[in-house]
Write a structure and sequence with these properties.
Length: 411
């Protein structure tokens, strides 16, 4: 039997390093994961460098690589991808940015890059849209909230450049940076000026916003500043259907991933109750994925919560969420004609609270797959598997071969 469909499940940042809180095991090793382990036992396993050994991937570059769009060729910045995911359609000349709703203290120092992992920021984005005015600079803008503390900004107007820095200091306890043009091109200066003005005006609006006043009364960090990064124009992406002759959908609460899916031509399927966090309704997500497999050839699903736990340095929370994921994946065991690919996009070790270049585990299970002797889905066990060590860009060719859609190289 040959698989007809592909379920491509990315467990965002699930891979880790040994955690002190878990007696030197990784969260995946420490978690009780009978479903993932059974899939590993029934499939072929390996470890994978999303981009290449030693390169620390962002979720943007890693997902592009996994989908067979080498970031070295296709990546034009995180901003435009994140913007598409929030529903901002990036047309020529627009400059996209990823934003964080963040907290600064009375001295202007960043005290939380994620404003206490705030959610429900739509009213804040709306207040900014209504009150910020960049017309004196000849610039318009669009701003949309994403999952959690995330949002996307797009600047519109004539003569805007995308070679600008970020105000995100990437750490706490210091002042946000001033956004600067990275070249002498007046277009980049225009963008940098518009960004700094946008940040200044939006800070005032956020500072007094009732939602933030209420948060402070409740002892929660207010979302009183926007950190913006990842400037870029939209690149050109060959469509998935042309590249692979597969129809596809993307299911992800994280707007970066739905944005990447959209730009390569996957249909975004929103699922109520999914949050991109550890409180997401994973049963609903799995149900939606199974529904999409009835309509489409390829379904990309991203589950984000383990990455957040890694960024927060919470090993025990990460282990516990992995067990929640495992339970939710139970319906996958009865899929027969579907090739199931499960991997991470990168490691997010709790010990460094950021992405690392450590390779991630990968399993491919489905009809026709030659299995190996590995029976556990974790970073160390999968290294013993039959796929050995592959790169993210190897994954789609392997998938296409297994579903009999790859072309012979040679005559
Ligand atoms: O969006 C996220 O989850 C992370 C990493 O991609 O970004 P940040 O560190 O700004 O929260
Ligand atoms: Mg990621």
């Amino acid at each position: 039997m040959i698989a007809e469909k592909v379920l491509f499940l990315v467990l965002d940042g699930i891979s880790d390093r040994p955690c002190e809180a878990l007696n030197g095991r990784t969260p995946l090793m420490a978690a009780w994961t009978p479903v993932l382990d059974r899939l590993a036992a029934e499939g072929v396993c390996g470890i994978m460098d999303s981009i290449s050994p030693g390169i620390r991937p962002g979720s943007d570059t890693s997902h592009l690589s996994l989908l067979g769009y080498p970031p070295q060729e296709y990546y034009t910045g995180r901003g435009p991808l994140e913007a598409e995911g929030t529903g901002i359609h990036m047309t020529a000349g627009m400059i996209g940015f990823r934003c964080n709703f963040a907290t600064v203290d009375a001295e202007g120092r960043v005290t939380d890059r994620r404003a206490g992992r705030i959610s429900g920021t739509a009213p804040l984005a709306e207040a900014i849209r209504e009150n910020v005015d960049l017309s004196a600079l000849g610039v318009g803008f669009r701003l949309e909230s994403g999952a959690g503390h995330r949002a996307a900004l797009a600047l519109t107007g004539e003569g805007l450049g995308d070679k600008v820095s970020s105000n995100d200091p990437k750490k706490e306890g210091v002042q946000p940076l001033v956004i600067r043009p990275c070249t002498d091109d007046p277009a980049d200066k225009k963008t940098a000026d518009a960004c700094n003005e946008f940040i200044r005006q939006s800070h005032k609006i956020l500072y007094d916003h009732p939602l933030n006043v209420r948060r402070m009364e409740e002892g929660l960090p207010p979302a009183n500043l926007l950190l913006i990064r990842g400037a870029g124009k939209m690149g050109a992406f060959p469509q998935f259907s042309e590249r692979y002759h597969l129809s596809g959908s993307v299911i992800s609460a994280a707007t970066l991933i739905s944005g990447i899916g959209k730009v390569v031509g996957l249909e975004h399927i929103p699922v109520p109750g999914t949050t991109g966090s550890v409180d997401s309704d994973l049963d609903a997500k799995v149900k939606a994925a199974l529904g999409e497999l009835g309509r489409k050839d390829f379904v990309l699903v991203n589950i984000k919560g383990a990455d957040e736990a890694g960024h927060d340095g919470k090993g025990i929370q990460k282990r516990d969420f992995i067990e929640v994921i495992d339970t939710a994946l139970e319906p996958l065991l009865s899929l027969e004609k579907t090739l199931i690919v499960i991997c991470a996009d990168h490691s997010t070790p709790c010990s460094i609270k950021d992405h690392s270049a450590d390779p991630v585990p990968v399993v491919i299970r489905g009809p026709g797959v030659r299995t190996d002797r590995n029976t556990r889905f974790d970073e160390v066990s999968c290294a013993e598997g039959g796929l050995h060590r592959i790169r993210g860009c190897d994954l789609m060719p392997i998938v296409l071969d297994l579903i009999n859609k790859s072309h012979k190289y040679g005559a």
